[in-house]
Description:
The structure is a single chain. The chain is of the alpha+beta class. It has a domain at 30-85. Helices cover 66% and strands 14% of the residues. It has 3 helices and 2 strands. The chain has helices spanning 4-9, 31-58, 63-84; strands at residues 11-16, 22-27. β1 (11-16) and β2 form a beta hairpin. It starts with a helix and ends with a helix.
Amino acid sequence: MPEWVKRALTRRVERKGSRGKQQIIIIKPSDKIVYLVKFTLGMTACLSCLEVAHLLVLGRWNSEVFAAITGLVGTVTGVFIGQHA
């Protein structure tokens, strides 16, 4: 998987240095958070495929799978918002 997750979670902080010069500090995310986000995005894709297959085969909506998808999407959204706040 490309490193777009790591780039999306990287923070840039601008501040004035000791001599009044602008500095940009780059804070990279830990590997654990990057792997967590990649895993959650992968599981969201897999569960979405499972929901589509359930709709095609049985013709019914599976609320348990949808609840899992909603929980994973909320987790990823919370990580991105918390990382950039």
